[in-house]
Amino acid sequence: MTGFVWLVGAGPGDPELLTRRAARVLGAADLVLYDALVDPRALELAPQARRFPVGKRAGRPSIRQETINRLMVRAARRGQRVVRLKCGDPFVLGRGGEEALALVAAGVAFEVVPGVTSAVAAAALAGIPVTHRGLAAGFVVVSGHAETAYGPVLDALAPQVLTVVVLMGLGARAAIAARLLGRGWSPLTPAAVAVGASTEAAHTWTGTLGALVTADLGASSAPGTIIVGAVVSLAAVLGRAAETGDSAAAAGRAG
């Protein structure tokens, strides 16, 4: 017996940002292997499935990637329908490619269900477009978990040309800021940190690249996305508009 595996993107947090395809496959699942930051409400879309947490958090004990791969393969070979529910998009700094390759090697059929990546959504929900005519014609996304991951990319960038988006980099924000400043970026370059995007814990710090090192992000343990570039200046207007829209939508639902 051979089952099936879906590699599903859960989006930035709010279950309402799941795709319709993601909701359907969750409803058909026998087993859901989910990341640590997946909203529990998303799991309610899989009422008949067994649910097993396999997420990784920095500095905490976690399941090895090889173990996750084996769990998917073993369940599929037993004929089960498996959803590997991953934060954001499976193929954006989420090891979705590694899991897909493991399934190919094992001869297990699978499908990738893309999700809304936090690399774009966190900025957008804070009123920051990662590209904007006259300010930034493109953006680069890097992982901030290790200098070997972000260093070569940041070193190759010309200052102030592209928007820089850093995922999983709150703990390294001082090193990242120093890296950019050392490459000629102005300390007055607008910068922001969007914390807990699309969740009830959501809040945004805005300031400058020079002030990023000492930014007060509060006591929240929610994940944060760092955005650096001229586009952050638009948050002063668009961020307020987004908050007004959220309030209006909430009032509409209550009515």
Describe the protein's architecture and organization.
This protein has 255 residues and is of the alpha/beta class. Helix content is 33%, strand content 20%. Strand 6, helix 6 and strand 7 form a beta-alpha-beta unit. Helix 3 packs across helix 4 and helix 6 runs parallel beside helix 7. The longest helix is centred in the C-terminal third of the chain and has 20 residues. The protein is elongated, with a radius of gyration of 19 Å. The relative contact order is 0.14.
Chain-wise SSE layout:
Blueprint: E1 4-9, H1 20-28, E2 31-34, H2 40-43, E3 50-53, H3 65-77, E4 81-86, H4 96-106, E5 110-113, H5 118-125, E6 139-143, H6 147-155, E7 163-167, H7 173-182, E8 190-195, E9 203-208, E10 224-228, H8 235-254
Parallel strand pairs: 1-4, 1-5, 2-3, 2-4, 6-7
Antiparallel strand pairs: 7-10, 8-9, 8-10
Helix pairs in contact: 3-4, 6-7
Quick synopsis:
The chain has helices at about 20-30, 40-45, 65-75, 95-105, 120-125, 145-155, 175-180, 235-255, and strands at about 5-10, 30-35, 50-55, 80-85, 110-115, 140-145, 165, 190-195, 205-210, 225-230.
How much beta, percentage-wise?
Answer: 15-25%
From the helix content, strand content and strand pairing, which structural class follows?
alpha/beta
Give the CA-based shape: elongated
What is the subunit organization of this protein?
A: single chain
What is the CATH third-level topology name of the largest domain? Methyltransferase, Cobalt-precorrin-4 Transmethylase, Domain 2
Task: State the helix count.
Answer: 8
Radius of gyration: 19 Å
CATH superfamily of the largest domain: Tetrapyrrole methylase, C-terminal domain
